[in-house]
Amino acid sequence: METFILILCILAAVLVSSFISRFIPRISTPLVQIALGAVMALLPIFPRMRLDPELFMVLFIAPLLYYEAHTINKVELLKGLRSSLSLAIGLAALTMIMVGVILHAAWPMFPLAAAMALGAALGPTDAVAVSSLGESADLTPDEHSILAGESLFNDATGVIGFQFAILATVTGSFSLPRALGEFLLEFVGGIGFGLIMGFVVNWLFESARRLGWETTTTRILLELFLPFLIYMVGQNILHVSGVLAVVSTGLLVRFDHTGVGPNTSKANIVSSSVWKVLSFSLNGAVFVLLGMLLPAAMGTSWRDRRVSNWMLVATITLVCLTVIVLRFLWTASVLIFTKDHETGSRRRITSKLLRSAAVMTFGGPKGTITLSLALTIPYMTDDGSAFPMRSELIFVAAGVIIVTLVLANFALPLLAPSQQSSEVPAQQVEKSIKVLRGTVRELSSRITDENRLAIQQVIKQYNHRIAKLKSRIGQYSPKDFQDLQVQTMEWEQDYMEERLSRIEEAQDQLEERLKSENTSIEQAPASTQPAAEAEPSTEAETVADRDADAQLIDRRSDRGDDQEELLNLRSQEQAARRILSTISGSLFHLDRGGELRWRAYTARRRLRGLLHSQFHRLKHLTQPIDKDRVFVAGRHLQAEMNHFLIEKLYSELGKGRFKTEDLLNTIINHQMIESSAEGKTEYAGMPAIRDQVEEAKREGYAIELGQIQDMVESGEISRTTARKMRRNVYVMQVDADSAL
Fold first, then answer.
1. Where are the alpha helices (DSSP H) in 524-626?
2. How far is CA 197 from CA 191, 242, 248, in A?
3. What backbone torsions phi and psi does residue 73 show, to the nearest 5 degrees?
């Protein structure tokens, strides 16, 4: 029960620290958590705690290192791998030797082997601290990858060096060949075991997915179980570095980057969310534990009257200076002798290089691993005597941890001030736009008569996404779309004016013909006598009369057809005038930034149309036409006008006058208007069309994932960028799946 209460208290401290950090943004969250842990240790109401180093490594460090290795930018890590290994092995070994030699020379009361054990414990940087502090400073990709790579690999060096230094202190003997052999065995063996497990895990997860055995629950549980299993097998059974085994596996696994489908997407989203919560909780717990351990670790030596407190402070100062100066000189040397990725030549010593060396110097603070190693110093040696200066070594280790964390908190923001920008880099946005455009092209090629409305609706959504992304990097302006709208309405106006002119011309011709037909029909009876008064006629004259009567009947029938056609033309005329009036009104009231010339132009065209309409009405005085007939004529005219506009808009593609996405959006809108004018049902009200839309969405997401994978394989984007882009697709995939 006491352990359970302690766990709850630690989690509560992590939660409280997240709120406190909002009010003191200049103090990093790790320092706040350390302070809360120290307060908990000093107050009697909280349970006491003793750290089991082995349990700490497997419970906290293994999953955190696995997650850090799995999410790190692999490309950037490979670029700086040589530098990272140089810091993780060379600098860690040099720190162990130099701290031991200098501390023993300054105060001979510290045996050389014991002092070197302290130096070995101070070798590893804290991966958790590096990750947390990196968020408060604007580190370059090279700096971040080198520091992250160092923190992943230097634990093995520190642990092995510490073990041999302690062994030399306890037994009084040391063998360099044996130490090097053990180091190579643990280092190479840990990496080799991790790589093998990486291949096995990839095969296991992908096979389960292919066979349909994978579920979200089993996927998350197996992934959470993985780092603990690998660490314990490597450390306790194979006797290799469990830390390096976990790191190697995390770098190699890729099962969450393969597979397409709603279930896989849902599992990836849940996995990402679970790991984020777990990582934040474990990170916070590590620093709270560090704060809880510091008072007890430092209190024993501070209260010991046999040891001068000033001597302890001086020792911390000397060790800190040694660690910091060594680290600065080493990182500066690494930067100087490392070739520049762009020029291919060695870097010159400049202020920028020295600043970068200072950033990486203060960006590698010591943390809980250092303290956990120090706490494992035994109390007794093999001859039964007390381990020399044990409490003082722990005190110095704790002091160095505090100093390096405080320096990192205040020095990093000064050396590399954070931009505090949440904007996505323009290059990444452009890559996203390229993916969306490729998806639109592929979807357009899959349009058939059956799925046209559905795919058009999905393409319209993609075009909106492209427009939003463009606006984020300043490449999209609403004015561009407004200019296209104005041009479209002007095309509509010109088309309808021309159409109205043809209708009026046909109407005039038909009225003239009707007048001539009326005249001929009225004159026809005058040339024909009644049968009673007629003189006897020949057979030929009778046939001629019958032909004349037949022609008269035909002319009367044609006259009826012409009158119906005239009625249709008058209906079209009224519908065209109404459409023109609507277009002119829209253009007149459209906001064009208060341009007087635009106002005058639209008013002049509107007045001209009005006068022409009144003149035509005075010229052709007719009876009012049925509204239904005018409505039907208007629908047909709108369909013809939209068909004309669609062809006109398609002809604008590739000319560069308007944005492609704006043109496609406008085309789709007019195609939907055309379908409505032809009497087709709205797609939203048809279950079959609605299902087709959801299916088209899923096709689009699959195409997006394929486009992203192609760009990764061609080297256009990094795997980190691809992971972020995939995550957005996964979220939308799950949303579409939930909608069903």
1. 539-589, 596-619
2. 10, 12, 9
3. -70, 105
Q: What gap in Å lies between CA 730 and CA 724, rounded to an integer?
A: 10
* % of the chain at pLDDT higher than 90: 4
- Reduced to 3 states, what is the DSSP secondary structure of residue 339? strand
- A 10 A CB-CB count for 516 gives 10
**C-alpha to C-alpha distances, 527 to 246, 517, 523, 548, 559, nearest whole angstrom:** 115, 16, 7, 10, 20
DSSP for residue 347:
P
Q: Are 38 and 295 within 8 A, CB to CB?
A: yes
Over the stretch 11-27, which tens digit does the pLDDT of each residue have?
888 888 888 877 777 77
Nearest to 69 by CA among 56, 78, 59: 78
Rounded to the nearest 5 percent, the helix, strand and coil shares of the chain are 80, 0, 20
Are the C-beta atoms of residues 284 and 102 closer than 8 Å to each other?
no
> CB–CB of 145/73 below 8 Å?
yes
Most confident listed range (38-42, 60-64, 228-232): 228-232
Amino acid at the residue 731: V
Name the 3-class secondary structure at 648.
helix
Handedness of CA 539, 545, 549, 554 (dihedral sign): positive
Stretch 446-471: mean pLDDT, rounded? 75
User: Residue 471 above 90 pLDDT?
Assistant: no
What does DSSP assign to residue 656? S
Q: What is the pLDDT of residue 522?
A: 56
Separation between Cα atoms, residue 189 and residue 237, nearest integer Å: 12
Rg (CA), the chain: 42
Q: How many other C-beta atoms can be found within 10 angstroms of the C-beta atom of residue 431? A: 20
Euclidean distance between CA atoms 214 and 221, whole angstroms: 11
Q: How far apart are CA 221 and CA 217, in angstroms?
A: 6
Q: What are 137's strand-pairing partners?
A: 417
How far is the C-alpha of 332 from the C-alpha of 654, rounded, in Å? 52
Kindly report the backbone phi and psi dihedral angles of residue 502, in degrees, each rounded to the nearest multiple of 5, phi listed first: -65, -40
- For the CA atoms of 33, 35, 37, 38, the dihedral, rounded to the nearest 10 degrees, stands at 170
Mean pLDDT of the chain: 75
Which residue do the tokens 């002091």 mark?
399
Residue 616: pLDDT over 70: no
Q: Measure the CA–CA gap between 463 and 144, rounded to whole angstroms.
A: 36
C-alpha to C-alpha distance for 670 and 641, rounded to whole angstroms: 10
Mean pLDDT of 233-257: 84
For residues 224-245, average pLDDT: 88
Burial 635-664 (b: 16+ CB within 10 A, else e): eebbbebbebbbebbeebeeeeebbebbbb
- DSSP track, 703-729: HHHHHHHHHHHTTSS-HHHHHHHHHHH
Rounded-to-integer distance, Cα 296 and Cα 300, Å: 7
Q: Tell me how far apart the 2 most distant CA atoms of the chain are, in Å.
A: 162
- Nearest 5°: the CA angle 137, 244, 325 is 45
Global pTM reads 0.59
Residues 569-586: b if buried by 16+ CB within 10 A, e if exposed: bbbbbbbbbbbbeebbee
The secondary element (H helix, E strand) that includes residue 132 is helix 127-134
Instruction: Give dist(CA 172, CA 427) in Å, integer.
Output: 60
Q: Which residues contact 210 (CB under 8 A, 6 or more apart)?
A: none
- Alpha helices for 390-477 (secondary structure H): 390-415, 426-445, 452-472
CA distance 186 to 238: 9
Sign of CA dihedral 29, 33, 38, 39: positive
Alpha-carbon gap, residue 616 to 605, rounded angstroms:
16
In angstroms, what CA-CA distances link 664 with 107, 660, 670, 731? 79, 6, 10, 26
